[in-house]
Design goal:
Length: about 260
Amino acid sequence: MHPARLAAAALAIVVLAGCSADGGSDPAGSASATSTPTRAPLTFEEATAALTGTLLPTAAVTHCDEYEPGSPEAQEYLDKLAEETAASPTLPQCGNPALGDLRAASLAGHAFALGDPVALPFAGGASRAIEVYELRDADSAQTAVATEAADLEGWAADKETPRVDNADGSYMPRTVVSEAGVAEVDLPGWTAWVLSRDEASFQDDGSVAADPYSTALLWAARDSLVIRVQVVGDTPGQAVATALDTATRYVTALD
Protein backbone atom coordinates (compact mmCIF):
# COMPACT_ATOMS: atom_id res chain seq x y z
CA MET A 1 0.00 0.00 0.00
CA HIS A 2 1.56 3.23 -1.07
CA PRO A 3 0.72 6.67 0.42
CA ALA A 4 -1.71 8.81 -1.60
CA ARG A 5 -0.83 12.26 -2.89
CA LEU A 6 -1.26 14.79 -0.12
CA ALA A 7 -2.45 18.40 -0.39
CA ALA A 8 -0.69 21.08 1.66
CA ALA A 9 -3.89 21.74 3.57
CA ALA A 10 -4.28 18.30 5.08
CA LEU A 11 -2.46 15.05 5.54
CA ALA A 12 -3.53 11.59 6.71
CA ILE A 13 -1.77 8.32 7.08
CA VAL A 14 -3.86 5.47 7.45
CA VAL A 15 1.85 4.04 9.12
CA LEU A 16 17.70 -16.34 11.84
CA ALA A 17 18.39 -18.31 14.61
CA GLY A 18 21.73 -19.89 13.95
CA CYS A 19 24.92 -21.23 15.40
CA SER A 20 28.21 -20.88 13.60
CA ALA A 21 31.59 -22.48 14.19
CA ASP A 22 34.93 -21.14 13.05
CA GLY A 23 37.60 -23.80 12.81
CA GLY A 24 41.28 -23.68 11.92
CA SER A 25 44.52 -25.66 12.24
CA ASP A 26 47.75 -24.72 13.97
CA PRO A 27 51.17 -25.57 12.41
CA ALA A 28 51.23 -28.87 14.31
CA GLY A 29 47.93 -29.86 12.75
CA SER A 30 45.81 -29.70 15.89
CA ALA A 31 42.25 -28.39 15.31
CA SER A 32 40.40 -25.83 17.36
CA ALA A 33 36.95 -24.33 17.05
CA THR A 34 35.00 -21.50 18.57
CA SER A 35 31.26 -21.05 18.41
CA THR A 36 28.86 -18.18 18.85
CA PRO A 37 25.79 -18.51 21.05
CA THR A 38 22.55 -19.45 19.36
CA ARG A 39 20.21 -16.49 19.09
CA ALA A 40 16.56 -17.24 19.61
CA PRO A 41 14.35 -15.99 16.77
CA LEU A 42 12.45 -12.81 17.46
CA THR A 43 8.80 -13.36 18.28
CA PHE A 44 5.81 -11.36 17.16
CA GLU A 45 5.02 -10.61 20.78
CA GLU A 46 8.48 -9.11 21.31
CA ALA A 47 8.13 -7.05 18.16
CA THR A 48 4.76 -5.62 19.10
CA ALA A 49 5.86 -4.87 22.67
CA ALA A 50 8.55 -2.58 21.24
CA LEU A 51 5.96 -0.47 19.38
CA THR A 52 5.95 2.61 21.59
CA GLY A 53 4.82 6.16 21.02
CA THR A 54 8.31 7.50 21.73
CA LEU A 55 9.32 6.38 18.23
CA LEU A 56 6.79 8.63 16.49
CA PRO A 57 5.25 12.11 16.49
CA THR A 58 2.82 12.24 19.40
CA ALA A 59 0.19 14.86 18.55
CA ALA A 60 -2.07 11.99 17.51
CA VAL A 61 -1.23 8.28 17.84
CA THR A 62 -3.27 5.35 16.53
CA HIS A 63 -2.62 1.68 17.30
CA CYS A 64 -3.84 -1.44 15.52
CA ASP A 65 -3.58 -5.09 16.59
CA GLU A 66 -4.62 -8.16 14.63
CA TYR A 67 -5.70 -11.42 16.25
CA GLU A 68 -5.14 -14.95 15.04
CA PRO A 69 -8.55 -16.24 13.83
CA GLY A 70 -9.96 -18.81 16.22
CA SER A 71 -7.70 -17.81 19.10
CA PRO A 72 -9.17 -16.98 22.53
CA GLU A 73 -8.03 -13.38 22.08
CA ALA A 74 -9.85 -13.15 18.75
CA GLN A 75 -13.05 -14.56 20.21
CA GLU A 76 -12.88 -12.20 23.17
CA TYR A 77 -12.50 -9.26 20.78
CA LEU A 78 -15.45 -10.39 18.65
CA ASP A 79 -17.66 -10.97 21.69
CA LYS A 80 -16.90 -7.52 23.04
CA LEU A 81 -17.52 -5.91 19.67
CA ALA A 82 -20.81 -7.76 19.29
CA GLU A 83 -21.97 -6.31 22.60
CA GLU A 84 -21.17 -2.77 21.45
CA THR A 85 -22.55 -2.85 17.91
CA ALA A 86 -25.49 -4.39 16.13
CA ALA A 87 -23.46 -5.10 13.01
CA SER A 88 -21.67 -8.40 12.47
CA PRO A 89 -18.27 -8.05 14.16
CA THR A 90 -15.09 -8.66 12.19
CA LEU A 91 -11.47 -8.90 13.24
CA PRO A 92 -9.29 -5.83 12.61
CA GLN A 93 -6.94 -5.72 9.62
CA CYS A 94 -3.63 -3.90 10.11
CA GLY A 95 -1.18 -2.84 7.44
CA ASN A 96 -1.03 -4.44 4.00
CA PRO A 97 -3.29 -7.51 3.61
CA ALA A 98 -1.54 -8.47 0.36
CA LEU A 99 1.59 -9.42 2.29
CA GLY A 100 0.13 -12.82 3.24
CA ASP A 101 0.98 -12.44 6.92
CA LEU A 102 -0.33 -14.54 9.77
CA ARG A 103 -0.94 -11.46 11.90
CA ALA A 104 0.15 -7.85 12.08
CA ALA A 105 0.23 -4.78 14.30
CA SER A 106 0.89 -1.13 13.60
CA LEU A 107 1.46 2.17 15.33
CA ALA A 108 1.04 5.52 13.58
CA GLY A 109 1.99 8.93 14.93
CA HIS A 110 1.15 12.35 13.55
CA ALA A 111 2.62 15.78 14.18
CA PHE A 112 -0.86 17.28 14.13
CA ALA A 113 -4.31 16.47 15.47
CA LEU A 114 -6.25 14.36 12.99
CA GLY A 115 -8.51 16.55 10.90
CA ASP A 116 -6.48 19.71 11.48
CA PRO A 117 -4.75 21.44 8.57
CA VAL A 118 -1.01 21.01 8.28
CA ALA A 119 1.51 22.74 6.07
CA LEU A 120 4.04 20.53 4.33
CA PRO A 121 6.87 19.81 4.53
CA PHE A 122 7.30 19.05 8.23
CA ALA A 123 10.78 18.22 9.51
CA GLY A 124 10.87 14.61 10.68
CA GLY A 125 7.70 13.76 8.78
CA ALA A 126 4.18 15.01 9.34
CA SER A 127 3.18 11.37 9.82
CA ARG A 128 5.16 8.23 10.59
CA ALA A 129 4.08 4.63 11.04
CA ILE A 130 5.67 1.33 12.02
CA GLU A 131 4.03 -1.92 10.94
CA VAL A 132 5.03 -5.40 12.12
CA TYR A 133 4.08 -8.56 10.22
CA GLU A 134 4.52 -12.20 11.19
CA LEU A 135 4.96 -14.47 8.18
CA ARG A 136 5.07 -18.25 7.92
CA ASP A 137 8.86 -18.51 8.07
CA ALA A 138 12.10 -16.65 7.44
CA ASP A 139 12.09 -17.43 3.71
CA SER A 140 8.63 -15.91 3.36
CA ALA A 141 9.78 -12.79 5.18
CA GLN A 142 12.84 -12.37 2.96
CA THR A 143 10.74 -12.92 -0.16
CA ALA A 144 8.21 -10.32 0.94
CA VAL A 145 10.89 -7.67 1.44
CA ALA A 146 12.61 -8.55 -1.84
CA THR A 147 9.30 -8.18 -3.66
CA GLU A 148 8.71 -4.74 -2.17
CA ALA A 149 12.27 -3.70 -3.01
CA ALA A 150 11.66 -4.69 -6.65
CA ASP A 151 9.09 -1.85 -6.77
CA LEU A 152 7.02 -3.58 -9.43
CA GLU A 153 4.51 -0.72 -9.52
CA GLY A 154 7.21 1.88 -10.12
CA TRP A 155 6.29 3.97 -7.09
CA ALA A 156 9.93 4.99 -6.50
CA ALA A 157 10.47 6.36 -10.01
CA ASP A 158 10.59 9.92 -11.30
CA LYS A 159 7.37 10.77 -13.11
CA GLU A 160 4.79 13.44 -13.78
CA THR A 161 1.04 13.04 -13.30
CA PRO A 162 -1.25 15.43 -15.19
CA ARG A 163 -4.00 17.40 -13.50
CA VAL A 164 -7.03 15.28 -12.56
CA ASP A 165 -10.51 16.83 -12.56
CA ASN A 166 -12.99 15.34 -10.08
CA ALA A 167 -16.73 14.96 -10.58
CA ASP A 168 -17.48 17.43 -7.77
CA GLY A 169 -15.62 20.23 -9.53
CA SER A 170 -12.45 19.96 -7.47
CA TYR A 171 -9.19 18.80 -8.97
CA MET A 172 -5.81 17.35 -8.16
CA PRO A 173 -3.06 19.60 -9.54
CA ARG A 174 -0.24 18.36 -11.74
CA THR A 175 2.19 16.37 -9.62
CA VAL A 176 5.91 15.89 -10.20
CA VAL A 177 7.85 13.09 -8.50
CA SER A 178 11.62 13.50 -8.40
CA GLU A 179 14.73 12.18 -6.60
CA ALA A 180 13.00 8.79 -6.47
CA GLY A 181 14.84 5.52 -5.96
CA VAL A 182 15.35 2.22 -4.12
CA ALA A 183 18.40 1.46 -2.00
CA GLU A 184 19.60 -1.17 0.46
CA VAL A 185 20.27 0.31 3.89
CA ASP A 186 22.24 -0.83 6.92
CA LEU A 187 19.94 -2.02 9.70
CA PRO A 188 22.03 -4.35 11.90
CA GLY A 189 20.62 -7.88 12.00
CA TRP A 190 18.01 -7.17 9.33
CA THR A 191 17.78 -7.25 5.54
CA ALA A 192 16.50 -3.76 4.77
CA TRP A 193 15.56 -1.71 1.72
CA VAL A 194 14.06 1.75 1.41
CA LEU A 195 11.96 3.27 -1.36
CA SER A 196 11.75 7.05 -1.46
CA ARG A 197 10.68 10.03 -3.51
CA ASP A 198 10.13 13.78 -3.39
CA GLU A 199 6.82 15.17 -4.57
CA ALA A 200 5.55 18.62 -5.55
CA SER A 201 2.31 19.94 -7.07
CA PHE A 202 1.84 22.75 -9.58
CA GLN A 203 -1.07 24.81 -10.85
CA ASP A 204 -1.87 25.08 -14.56
CA ASP A 205 0.08 28.34 -14.78
CA GLY A 206 3.18 26.70 -13.34
CA SER A 207 2.89 28.21 -9.87
CA VAL A 208 3.43 25.96 -6.85
CA ALA A 209 0.25 24.35 -5.54
CA ALA A 210 1.99 22.52 -2.68
CA ASP A 211 5.54 22.84 -1.44
CA PRO A 212 7.79 19.83 -2.12
CA TYR A 213 7.96 17.11 0.52
CA SER A 214 9.53 13.67 0.75
CA THR A 215 8.16 10.22 1.51
CA ALA A 216 9.95 6.96 2.34
CA LEU A 217 8.95 3.33 2.83
CA LEU A 218 11.51 1.16 4.63
CA TRP A 219 11.01 -2.62 4.50
CA ALA A 220 13.10 -5.01 6.61
CA ALA A 221 13.10 -8.74 7.40
CA ARG A 222 14.54 -10.83 10.22
CA ASP A 223 13.53 -14.37 11.12
CA SER A 224 9.81 -14.66 10.26
CA LEU A 225 9.15 -10.96 10.89
CA VAL A 226 8.79 -8.08 8.45
CA ILE A 227 8.62 -4.44 9.46
CA ARG A 228 7.64 -1.43 7.42
CA VAL A 229 8.47 2.13 8.47
CA GLN A 230 6.56 4.80 6.60
CA VAL A 231 7.47 8.51 6.63
CA VAL A 232 5.22 11.05 4.89
CA GLY A 233 5.57 14.81 4.54
CA ASP A 234 9.24 15.20 5.50
CA THR A 235 11.49 17.94 4.13
CA PRO A 236 12.77 17.16 0.60
CA GLY A 237 15.48 14.51 0.57
CA GLN A 238 15.19 13.73 4.29
CA ALA A 239 12.57 10.99 4.54
CA VAL A 240 15.10 8.17 4.10
CA ALA A 241 17.20 9.40 7.02
CA THR A 242 14.08 9.77 9.16
CA ALA A 243 12.85 6.28 8.29
CA LEU A 244 16.24 4.70 8.98
CA ASP A 245 16.58 6.53 12.30
CA THR A 246 13.10 5.39 13.34
CA ALA A 247 13.79 1.79 12.29
CA THR A 248 17.17 1.77 14.04
CA ARG A 249 15.69 2.97 17.31
CA TYR A 250 12.94 0.39 17.02
CA VAL A 251 15.19 -2.63 16.35
CA THR A 252 17.62 -1.45 19.05
CA ALA A 253 14.75 -1.64 21.52
CA LEU A 254 14.16 -5.23 20.37
CA ASP A 255 17.78 -6.28 21.06
